[in-house]
Design brief:
This protein has 293 residues and is α/β, with parallel strands linked by helices. It has eleven helices and ten strands.
Length: 293
């Protein structure tokens, strides 16, 4: 593999159509990502930084590096570079309104009676989503941490999971939290008021882990709600259909699936999932009759 001394990358690194196709194939095989030809400039812009960081002189050499067994960390840098972690507290507020409604209709009572309740934030990014879920839950079930109620939060990017686990955000970030909740569930980290940390009560409800949604999941569920929003947009249609079906299999009857505003459930999952509000789906209580399968 060709390497160069620091400062040798002032020129552009060549990026052929073959280079792009090889990157796209790797991203598809390992992470399920679908990279259209129109993404070539974006892929070059983001990955050329990785080549410069690793002092690699060509995309051919970078691809060879990615195949090394000891380069798992670089493969995760690749996925981080190719995806965008855009999130905010209470993003798509209607989903949290639906969760609040579902808690009032029975989930809170189940939790308070000691029954198991589980919620999964699949693609949790830097943590705003699972902490928003935790705030919503604690408003309905103040003693949630003492009950069998837990939130699983996963993402493929270990750096972003670490940030989520820390739970520290800018004042601009926490401004998206409704004022009563903001005062209750976050605290300034210093006198400047520029950064805020979420309270331990929120952290106690959440388990953060790294997870590639394309591999076998190391848990069995079932879940009462799954949030997977603006993740499937990176996958091709067949990968999306498989993912929806896997999520459906992980849901309890009456369980909810929340997806992004530009996403739609398709394929076999529609035999068990029906629309339930805006970009929300509910799993049927009973199996679909054989005649409809």
């Amino acid at each position: 593999m060709t390497s160069s001394p620091p400062g040798a990358f002032t020129r552009d690194i060549p990026f052929s159509d073959a280079d792009f196709r090889a990157i796209a194939q790797l991203a598809q095989q390992r992470f399920g990502l679908s990279l259209a030809e129109s993404k070539k400039p974006l892929v070059y812009s983001r990955l050329s930084r990785r080549l410069k960081s690793r002092q690699v002189g060509s995309f051919t050499d970078y691809l060879a590096l990615l195949e090394r067994s000891e380069e798992e960390a670089e493969r995760l840098e690749l996925i981080s570079a190719l995806t965008t972690n855009v999130t905010s507290f209470f993003r798509e507020k209607h989903h949290f309104d639906t969760l609040t409604q579902r808690l009032a209709e029975g989930l809170a009572e189940r939790a308070n009676s000691g029954q198991r309740v589980r919620i999964w934030s699949a693609g949790c990014s830097s943590g705003q989503e699972p902490y928003s879920i935790a705030m919503t839950v604690l408003e309905a079930v103040p003693e949630a941490a003492r009950k069998d109620l837990r939130i699983l939060a996963t993402d493929i990017d270990p750096k972003i999971v670490h940030k989520a686990r820390d739970g520290v955000y800018s004042a601009e970030d926490v401004a998206g939290i409704p004022a009563p909740m903001r005062g209750k569930w976050t605290k300034a980290t210093d006198a400047s008021g520029k950064t805020y940390g979420v309270t331990q009560a929120l952290k106690d409800l959440i388990t953060f882990n790294e997870l590639n949604l394309m591999v076998e999941w190391p848990f069995r569920g079932p879940f009462d709600a799954i949030f997977c929003r603006n993740v499937a947009i990176y996958f091709d249609q067949e990968t999306q259909r498989r993912l929806w079906q896997r999520f459906s299999a992980m849901l309890n009857p009456d369980g909810l699936l929340f997806i992004g505003h530009s996403e739609r459930v398709t394929g076999q999952a529609l035999k068990t999932l029906t629309g339930f509000g805006i970009t929300s789906y509910r799993k049927a209580r009973t199996n679909v009759p054989p005649a409809l399968q």
